[in-house]
Amino acid sequence: MSTRPPRNGETKLESINTLLIDGNSLFKNSFHGAKDSYNNEGTHIGGLYQFMTMLRKLLNENLYHSVYAFWDGTFSGKLRYNIYETYKSARGKDFIHGTKPKDQAELNQRMKVQEYLEELYVRQIEDHIIESDDFIAYYCLVRKPNEKITICSGDSDLFQLINENVNMYFLKLKKYIDINNFKQEIGFSKENAKLIKIICGDTSDSIDGVKGLAKDGLLTLFPELKEKICTLDEIINKAKELQQVRLDNKKKPLAKLTNIIDGITDGIQGNKLYEINEQLVDLSKPMMTERGIKELEDLIDSKLSDDRSIKSVYEKMKRDGLDDIIGDYRMVDYLTPFKLLSEREKKLI
Length: 349
Hints:
By secondary structure, this protein is of the alpha/beta class. The protein has 15 helices and six strands. The chain has helices spanning 23-33, 46-61, 78-81, 104-119, 132-141, 182-186, 193-200, 215-221, 232-248, 255-262, 273-281, 290-301, 310-320, 323-326, 331-348; strands spanning 16-22, 66-72, 123-127, 147-153, 166-170, 175-177. β5 (166-170) and β6 (175-177) form a beta hairpin. The two termini are 29 Å apart. The relative contact order is 0.15.
């Protein structure tokens, strides 16, 4: 997929910074990480507070000219489900009737977060079948030539997108990950992120990999994955060599090596394990629809209306009792990073 041509009205700034938020990932991290946060009326507001506080932290640490939040819709992931019908089955995902949060408080708080973001000039998009990962991947593919991107997510699938122009605030480590510290922080060469998923699958998405093989076992058998770019053919050929050495030394064949060589899995991929898994995990080819592409490109091109206000955000936060946690006297300071973002966005309108 080629980089799109410049659009009319694009900023002439020498360099622009954009923050892409994996909305579901950040919200779930916030909601489940703040189970004990309530307002004075006894209503749980941990998801609201932690989401906004994390966004505030990111805005304080870097100057962003634009912020996007991408949300999973009711049937998001269906494009992968159409290829692999056990996709996300462990999460109870229902691609026939749709899946909603089991906790009504979770649903209510997510909707309120989206309300806040609208007032803060944060561009948002949610499609009923396209996953937020794919929107983020597509955005990175069509980034402006002078654009630097930070992704906020706890999803390791997005490691594939890291390069000299894209870094990631990884929620699980609470650290920024880039091409310089990736190997030190994550434990293998960044260029092998997709390959490891192809071979081992992804338990969080119910994608089966090679039978009996997890990431740590793969890295033990093939330490070169930590140091250099590898291909699937190289790993299979190395597995054959290791197996032959065992046989030459009168040892039993190692089941894991046989499974790698033959692509054996407990999953439903059959003899197309590697082919199907590459389709499922490869974010260089995001699963988009024509409608989704148009929605995103319209959002990128859009001029936001100027009827939003920090005052309105403040009123909504007061309504929901966030001042009970933040402290009413600290609300002005708390909202300052959001005010600065709004001012930068207004200059682009």
